[in-house]
Q: What sequence folds into this?
């Protein structure tokens, strides 16, 4: 078997895995009462926000807005660790300030926007693995669509739609954070930090694996 065929087969494996994993989850969600409407709004809000952010800030910083994405690009050899440290600090502080602003504007928000789901309190290990897989999908889209330019000017759509799909499929199970900054800020405001470290491990791990795989195995020739 040639190397080209091996790579083509690997790409087919990853693509089919992503389709079935997200598709099956999306179907599973429908069996849980009163969850569909609750998932659709956050999925659209996050995905559309990311699309806008990429078009507005992408030409300045690359619009990572996610420590897991930055970690993935470090693993892919597309960013130095020194630069990544500044990005991580900015992203985490931005998430904390955003969550604090929400509390300031809405003193009793009722919900601090934590990225939690039915797995978070019942099986944190499974929740972390879940987050790792979904983050792998997201960072894969970033590397191929944006870093390697496979989607051209539509890269933002490829990334945003991937995030929407991930939240639609996984939001009920873990909150579908896929982003340490998204997890940390609301968790701090709510005083609920028990799940933060496993989520960090899962999301950063998924991002690093995606960056390494797509740069060393599935990179354009």
A:
């Amino acid at each position: 078997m040639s190397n080209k065929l091996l790579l083509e087969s690997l790409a087919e494996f990853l693509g089919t895995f992503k389709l079935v994993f997200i598709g099956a989850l999306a179907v599973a969600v429908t069996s849980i009462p009163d969850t569909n409407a609750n998932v659709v709004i956050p999925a659209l809000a996050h995905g559309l926000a990311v699309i806008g952010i990429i078009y507005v800030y992408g030409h300045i910083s690359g619009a990572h807005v996610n420590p897991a994405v930055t970690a993935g690009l470090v693993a892919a050899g597309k960013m130095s660790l020194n630069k990544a440290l500044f990005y991580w600090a900015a992203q985490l502080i931005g998430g904390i300030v955003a969550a604090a602003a929400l509390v300031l504007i809405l003193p009793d928000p009722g919900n601090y926007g934590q990225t939690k789901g039915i797995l978070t309190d019942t099986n944190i290990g499974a929740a972390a693995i879940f987050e790792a897989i979904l983050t792998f999908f997201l960072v894969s889209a970033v590397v191929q669509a944006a870093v390697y330019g496979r989607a051209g000017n539509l890269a933002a759509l490829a990334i945003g739609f991937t995030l929407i799909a991930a939240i639609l499929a996984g939001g009920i199970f873990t909150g579908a954070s896929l982003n340490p900054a998204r997890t940390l800020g609301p968790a701090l405001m709510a005083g609920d930090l028990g799940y933060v470290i496993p989520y960090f491990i899962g999301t950063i791990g998924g991002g690093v694996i995606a960056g390494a795989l797509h740069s060393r195995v599935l990179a354009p020739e």
